[in-house]
Amino acid sequence: MLLKNRRILITGVLTTNSIAFTAARLAQEQGAEVLLTGYGRGLAITKAVAKRLPAECDVLSMDVTEPTDLNTVADELGARWGRVDGVLHSVAFAPAGTLGGGFLTAPWPEVATAMHVSTYSFAAFGRVFGPLLAKSDSGALVGLDFDAAQVWPGYDWMGVAKAGLESCCRYLAHALGPDGTRVNLVAAGPLKTMAASAVPGFEAYDNSWAERAPLGWELTDPEPVGRVVCALLSDWMPSVTGEIVHVDGGAHAIGMSTAGGKP
Prior knowledge:
Helix 1 (19-29) packs across helix 8 (223-233), helix 3 (67-80) packs parallel to helix 4 (108-133) and helix 4 (108-133) runs parallel beside helix 5 (156-176). The protein has helices spanning 19-29, 41-50, 67-80, 108-133, 156-176, 194-197, 205-212, 223-233; strands at 7-10, 33-38, 59-61, 86-89, 140-145, 182-188, 243-247. The chain has a single domain (7-261), classed as Rossmann fold (3-Layer(aba) Sandwich), CATH 3.40.50. It has a seven-stranded parallel beta sheet with strand order 3-2-1-4-5-6-7, sandwiched between helices. The model has no long low-confidence stretch (mean pLDDT 93). The chain is α/β, with parallel strands linked by helices and 263 residues long.
């Protein structure tokens, strides 16, 4: 089994069609012991969805913007496990005013919220969970990304936050590498998830993405992404860090649609 005896913390599970839930399910199927986190009104939802996993697991309360919560969860993991082998950062949020054409009009407090939740919290994970990951034979911190190399209309400040996340990944890889911890991102193609439904104009990606992707793309199937997440959380990629792994059918490599065999 790919993740036998590995202990993994997974954030961001709210629905069964999410990448985080799929990663948690696959991780358990591959032998991992999993803990989830939730927060606020979503905590009860996460606890309910946890029952749909192959093995129901505990759910810890954690607001990723609250240092006390992060430290409390780290202390709990230290007492329960003594180490952490992998952490999945699957958390992002942007107020409505920062999306859908609000790039020039969004006020700083809303932009700051998007950056805090979606970017800075990744660094906070490295700081707080780093010592526990360092106790693993092959610790791994993995985050979820949406390729920030170009503009996605309607994505606005979330796109900027993702660009910051990509830079943060490289800096964390440098900071945590001496302890043997790998830090990577998985840049997923568009999927019909709760997060995607909050992005104005998301439906425009439906047809164009599949046409551009050489391998094709299924917007309702998060399993290809979940598999790569689990591979990065395993000890099978010991020299991969600071990387952005694209799981998008190859669309990121193609400048325009080649439908019908013509550029």
